[in-house]
Amino acid sequence: MMASIGEFDPLNNIVPATKIEVTVSCRDLQDVDTFSKSDPVVVLYVQGIGTKEWREFGRTEVIDNTLNPNFVRKFFLDFFFEEKQNLRFDVYNVDSRSSNISKFKDFLGQTFCTLGEIIGSAGGRLEKSLSGIPGKKLGSIIFVAEELSNCRDIATMQLCANKLDKKDFFGKSDPFLVFYRSNEDGTFTICHKTEVVKNTLNPVWQPFTIPVRALCNGDYDRTVKVDVYDWDRDGSHDFIGEFTTSYRDFSRGQNQFNVYEVLNPKKKGKKKKYINSGTVTLLSFKVESEYTFVDFIRGGTQLNFTVAIDFTASNGDPSQPTSLHYINPYQMNAYAMALKAVGEIIQDYDSDKLFPAYGFGAKLPPDGKISHAFPLSGDYDNPNCVGIDGVLEAYFRSLRTVQLYGPTNFSPVISQVARLYRVTLRDFSRATGHFPSALAAVNAGGAGERHSREDIQLSAQDVTDGSQYFVLLIITDGVISDMVQTKEAVVNAAALPMSIIIVGVGPAEFDAMEELDGDEIRVSSRGRFAERDIVQFVPFRDYMDRSGNQVLSMARLAKDVLAEIPEQLLGFMKSRGIEPRPALSPSDLPELHRHI
Predict the structure, then answer these.
(1) Whether the predicted pLDDT of 316 surpasses 60
(2) Which residues have a Cβ under 8 Å from the Cβ of 352 and sit 6 or more positions away?
(3) Is pLDDT of 546 > 80?
(4) Cα(583)–Cα(280) distance, integer angstroms
(5) What element of type H or E holds 513?
(6) 156 to each of 7, 31, 283, 316, 501, how far by Cα in Å?
(7) CB-based contacts of 101: which residues, under 8 Å, 6+ apart?
(8) What is the pLDDT of residue 455?
(9) Residue 558 CB partners (closer than 8 Å, separation 6+)
(10) According to DSSP H, which parts of 387-461 are helical?
(11) Distance CA 412, CA 410 (A)
(12) What is the DSSP string of 46-104?
């Protein structure tokens, strides 16, 4: 179904995912044929979100007589950073050329991974052991992920129109253009809307930029449909006419073929002398390649994931079923669900899988001191938990040892992550011998000075080499008590390679949180505006599946809160002039070409 022009929001319109090419090889497969070596094939299955069903996505070719195949046929997968894309690879020895898997002679092993795991591995190369036959060594399978080159192309174009139909009774028309890309099934999806040019039949629209994949999904000859409308205040925009073209036509630039007749089928049917409802002309067109999120990940950029959990008394007594922190042996509470939903996706892009985790708003043993940034591990010098499961364990353990209290202060944990970043940068400086000036004092004092050096401001050139990006997940049930200090912390953090996700759990009203989510109005403090929007806030209740399917609820939440992270990372890197480090190409990677 075509999206209506009224519903279209160019800021939130989902651009098609980038396409990833996955190459597969195997090493040291089992030899199951009597008179020759095995004839292997790899079958890829993808798992549906929520349903958990595996469906076959595709197969490699069969390579005869080898235990170390390098398959030529590749898998082309849409990549969504914000989704957990579960993959299963089954390896068979083929004795029959039948397409029916049950006719394949021998099962040689299988492995499970996510697409994010492959992309997040060094150089986009992941090697995993095959399993599935107890007690036997089955060899390994190697994946190499590369982004298709046309996914990074950005088109900038400008159009004007001439002698459009007059639609307004008292004045001329107020024209705007709506672009649609065609889909495989013949439907159209809206992908861009120009601004409205008031009171003219000869408008010149501003130049605009659009990812090429959004315009044609990588198929340069696919139809692009453009509708011309006259804007009306009440939203009932009048249709002037339409024309069709393609990316390939646009790419030829300004010429006589890129003057389009605007046709209105209804008028054409009624009026014998109808010629057109005006013309639209392409004034300019250029294409540039931009660095992508995948470029940075393949170049070694690590996403450092940190968690902060609300331990204020408004959550309710954790021993009672009414509490938001209630530990139910049969299902996760909202805090655990939010943590797992976001963490399980981000962990694929963090090689050490060590995640700092903090609590705030609790009284701590033994002296009942209130803390707004205490490590769930209990160790101030090492706040790291091993894996998302380690974070969950530390969270449940803390619920049994601390007293829920208050108030709900966010600024200490935001400042704490900024400190973690500086410590990471200091450690990097030690390793490389390069000491940014802003860190010299911290480095001289060592880790013991971390609490007294909170106010260090990093200059732009000191901020990063592009190797680290921090994502802080704050899960809370209530209204912020320190809004002034939190705004200041957000403004400061916006200058760092950092994004903040806030998930509201429970039934409270979260109106104040919208102030921090700078989609509409950029966050400011003492007259200083945040240099970029780094906060994404959502109430978890909006994503709960009505049938109680927790997997679906978590997938919906993760999809929404993580969708902005790639753009925020790219925006930061671009603002600092940081380019991704070159990834190792498949030919540089060991093992891959050893066996033929």
Answers:
(1) yes
(2) none
(3) yes
(4) 43
(5) helix 511-516
(6) 24, 55, 11, 54, 32
(7) 43, 92
(8) 38
(9) 82, 83, 84, 341, 342, 344, 345
(10) 387-401, 411-432, 440-445
(11) 6
(12) EEPTTT--EEEEEE-----S-SS-B--S-EEEEE-TTS--EEEEEEEE-SS--S-GGGS
As a whole number of Å, the CA-based R_g of the chain is 28
pLDDT band at 435; cut points 50, 70, 90: very low
What token pair was written down for 17?
């995912």
Distances (CA, A) of 583 to 124, 144, 182, 197, 413: 8, 12, 34, 45, 33
Given a contact cutoff of 8 angstroms between Cβ atoms, the answer to whether 494 and 568 are in contact is no
CA–CA gap between residue 140 and residue 472 (Å, rounded): 35
- Cα-Cα-Cα-Cα dihedral sign, residues 534, 468, 428, 291: negative
Q: What is the mean pLDDT of residues 292-305?
A: 92
Please state which of the ranges 116-130, 343-357, 448-462 shows the lowest mean pLDDT. Answer: 448-462
Q: What would the pLDDT profile of 361-405 be if each residue is shown by its tens digit?
A: 999 999 999 999 999 999 999 999 999 999 999 999 999 999 999
Q: Which residue reads 């088109």 in tokens?
A: 155
Collect all residues with Cβ–Cβ distance below 8 Å to 450 and sequence separation of at least 6. Answer: 419, 423, 442
Which amino acid is present at 248?
R
What predicted TM-score, i.e. pTM, was given to this entire model? 0.76
Can you list the domains of the chain with their CATH numbers? 18-147 (2.60.40.150), 151-289 (2.60.40.150), 296-575 (3.40.50.410)
Task: Please tell me whether residue 510 adopts helix, strand or coil conformation.
Answer: coil
Pair of tokens at residue 97: 């050329």
Q: Read off the tokens for 29.
A: 């497969």
Give the pLDDT mean for 116-136.
93
Tokens matching residue 531: 């240099």
Q: Which two tokens stand for residue 417?
A: 């992550």
